[in-house]
Specification:
Length: about 260
């Protein structure tokens, strides 16, 4: 069966490849602190089922303990090294098989291999906390090679660290139009395509959650990054097929032969 990507909103995707279901940065909440889900229905219970879940970094919208608690008993969970120490709630999830990983690690799950790669992002749980865990990306390799970038900025060794990929799941937004270092906006994500040269790309991490009270203040800026990424990618990386998925929509990954 060809590899397939489903986007559930924010940075949460299911990558199905080689009869293995991989879930990225599971977030199944209507509300998270000052953020509320404004686009797309909550992922259905079927989305909670995975053979493997991966967490890119410790920010609460990527490592969300209540969402992880919904995963099936026995699900394997990859988290950045040091995460259980920095996030005590992880230690209260004994039904999961938690493995701490760092860049350079490779994990086998059935016929699938997952390569852990670096990301350029502040991986701390709290803004003023110590750096105890790295921010990560993951390359999921089976029938296809799919890169989940997590949250990252551009960095010089990106193409070398990630390697050749068939599909790239790239963050293109956040809580508004002004993103600092350590993030990809639509323009920087399009630049990432020129470096990575995948066959296809899916924009993620936009148009799902934004702050309570901001509904009437230029709300288009929270979901516009997807369209802007499509436009800029066509200019800068015209050979890449960009799929702007709706919440819950899927696309098959084209594989180089």
């Amino acid at each position: 069966m060809p590899a397939e990507v489903t986007w559930w909103g924010h940075a949460t995707c299911t990558v199905e490849d080689s009869d293995i279901r991989v879930l990225t940065d599971p977030l199944f909440a209507r509300r998270l602190a000052h953020l509320r889900r404004r686009r797309g229905a909550l992922p259905p219970p079927d989305a909670w089922h995975a053979d493997l879940a991966v967490v890119s970094h410790l920010h609460a919208d990527h490592l969300h303990v209540p969402s992880l608690a919904r995963l099936d008993p026995g699900t394997r969970l990859l988290v950045p090294r040091g995460a259980p120490r920095a996030v005590p709630g992880l230690r209260r999830l004994p039904h999961l098989r938690v493995t701490e990983v760092a860049p350079g690690d490779e994990i086998a799950v059935g016929d699938l291999r997952v390569k852990v790669v670096p990301a350029r992002h502040d991986g701390r749980r709290l803004p003023l906390g110590p750096h105890r865990s790295p921010a990560l990306g993951y390359v999921i390799e089976g029938e296809a090679r799919t890169y989940f970038a997590g949250d990252t900025g551009l960095f010089d060794e990106m193409a070398k660290e990630v390697g050749p990929v068939d599909a790239a799941l790239l963050p293109v937004g956040g809580w508004g139009p002004y993103l600092g270092d350590g993030h990809l906006d639509a323009g920087r994500a399009a630049e990432a395509l020129t470096r990575l040269a995948p066959r296809s790309a899916v924009p993620v991490h936009y148009g799902t959650y934004w702050p309570i009270g901001m509904d009437g203040v230029r709300p288009h800026e929270f979901h516009a990054p997807g369209d802007e990424f499509v436009r800029l990618a066509a200019l800068r990386a015209p050979g890449v097929a960009v799929h702007r998925l709706g919440h819950g929509e899927s696309v098959r990954v084209e594989v180089a032969r």
